Amino acid sequence: MKRFLYGIDFGTTNSALAIYDEDSKKIHSTIIIPSLIYFYHQLNTGKEKNYVVGEEAINAYLNDGMQGRFIKSIKQILSRSSFSETRIHNKRYNASDLVAIILKELKGRADEIVGQDVQKAVIGRPVFFDDDNVQKDTLAQNRLNKAAELAGFTEVRFQFEPIGAAFAYEQTLTKKEHVLVGDLGGGTTDFTYLILDPAKVGSKDRKKDMMATGGIYIGGDSFDAAFMWERGTPYFGKHTTYEATPGKVLTVPKSLFANICSWEQMNFFNGQRIRKDIDDYYYYSGKDRKFKNLITLIENNLGYSVFQAIERTKIALSSEQETDFTYHQMEIDIDEQVSLTEYEQIIQKDVTRITNYLEEFLQQNNIDVTKIDSLFLTGGTSMVASIQSLFKNKFPHITLNSGDNFKSVAKGLAYSGYLFED
Ligand SMILES: Nc1ncnc2c1ncn2[C@@H]1O[C@H](COP(=O)(O)OP(=O)(O)OP(=O)(O)O)[C@@H](O)[C@H]1O
Ligand SMILES: [Mg+2]
After folding, report:
1. Ligand 2 centre distance from Cα of residue 12 (Å)
2. Whose CA is nearest to atom 25 of ligand 1?
């Protein structure tokens, strides 16, 4: 029987699994799915499962009139000690249960391809799950480990995601290089500086080659949240005023809108709990048209579809100078022109934090920039124009390389089988 190992990149936005044939030492194939779960609105007793995963989750959510529970960016709850569980259809799900749903889906699809129940996996993890708080980080890795166990893996090793990316890049090299790798995803931005050497592929001890790793909790989701805040929330009443007491006019609290900007809040946002306040603001705003959109958004679970429109705008601006941000659903009508310059202003704070972090990473690890032979960038967010400029400006003399932005990490994880030999 053939021996296989899975390299698994459980990502904030996308999750990938590379099937590695341990005998031929080659990747057989790679599967990728969006990291999404949709729990049907109605518990359908005829169905085996009450949820769907990946691409199918989007279709089911739309077909179901967007009424069920749509869960996105689950990875972000791994490090939240405040999250213990959520109840869906009277069943409790903790963080590991939710993550296990994604891992199980990937494993099931891969097992079907190879015709075996493969229980050995190298799973990626960001350098820091959150900020560099050790307790939160340990909590996140333990939860991920538990999820892997629930999904049916019995032999698991963890590897930093950017090292995975580096090993994928190493496959394309013909000589030894000092490489700076940047993996910019949906939730985190990770760096690693290491020596890559095609002669060392698969060798047991690569520790000496890893010169530095680091990361920051900013990614494409942060850009989308910033865009929602600046260009989305005004359509949902961010500037709405209401009559607090006769003659006293105030603006509705901004905190209401924080809930609709972040996925972490949106996933488990209980609109009902603050519903009375929202109804009061609506009434005392003189039934403001835009504030009504907030009620429509919450009542109809429209969050994901609004964020899809935001992501479309972002992706268009990776190759165009100007695009539109449009959204038309249940009398919510958004039609905006957005130029790249405007977009870059909106995400500037986050891009500056990434820039500063990169600077700190280079300094703290005493990285001599003149010794870097090449740069390898991966992850969906590496395509954002400001991110491309950041690296081009910072390292004008170093070639910028990229591979498959969505599968590199999983592939490189699959090349990390040496971790089992410790
Ligand atoms: N063409 C594009 N231009 C800009 N951003 C893009 C593009 N395509 C995808 N993205 C963004 O890239 C992010 C997803 O990238 P990726 O799949 O690498 O992340 P991930 O691995 O799921 O997240 P993480 O590694 O942080 O856990 C999303 O924020 C998505 O909106
Ligand atoms: Mg990633």
Report:
1. 7
2. 185
Ligand with minimal distance to 75 CA: 1
- The answer to whether the Cα torsion of 118, 122, 124, 128 is positive or negative is positive
Question: What digits encode the pLDDT tens for the residues 262-312?
Answer: 877 777 766 667 888 999 999 999 999 999 999 999 888 899 999 999 999
φ/ψ of 73, rounded to 5, equals: 50, 45
| CB 68 less than 6 A from any atom of ligand 1 | no
Report the residue among 8, 10, 13 best suited for mutation to probe ligand 1: largest number of ligand atoms under 8 A from its CB: 13
Q: How far is the CA of 185 from the centre of ligand 1 (A)?
A: 5
What is d(CA 39, CA 59) in angstroms, rounded to the nearest whole number?
A: 12
- Distance (Å, whole) CA 39 – CA 42: 9
pTM score of the predicted model: 0.94
Residue bearing tokens 């989305």? 232
What pLDDT score was predicted for residue 68? 87
386 lines ligand 1 (CB under 6 A): no
Over the stretch 231-267, which tens digit does the pLDDT of each residue have?
999 999 999 999 999 999 999 999 889 889 987 777 7
How far does the centroid of ligand 2 lie from the alpha carbon of residue 406, in Å? 7
Instruction: Give the ligand at the shortest distance from the Cα of 164.
Output: 2
Give the confidence band of 131 by pLDDT, cuts at 50, 70, 90. Answer: confident
- Sheet containing 14-21: order of strands: 26-34, 14-21, 4-10, 120-125, 155-160
Of the candidates 21, 144, 164, 128, the one whose C-alpha atom is nearest the C-alpha of residue 94 is 144
For residue 204, how far is the Cα from the chain centroid? 31
Residue in 9, 12, 264 to alter for ligand 1 test, most ligand atoms within 8 A of Cβ: 12
Which pair of tokens denotes residue 71? 């869960």
The predicted structure's pLDDT at residue 45: 63
Q: Are 310 and 349 in contact (CB under 8 A)?
A: no
Specify the pLDDT at position 270. 62
Least confidently predicted of 203-207, 314-318, 336-340:
203-207
Domain chopping of the chain, boundaries: 36-71
Among 42-46, 200-204, 267-271, 273-277, name the one with the lowest average pLDDT. Answer: 267-271
Residue 409 CA, closest ligand 1 atom number:
21
How confident is residue 207, by pLDDT bands cut at 50, 70 and 90?
confident
Contact yes or no for 38/69 (Cβ under 8 A): yes
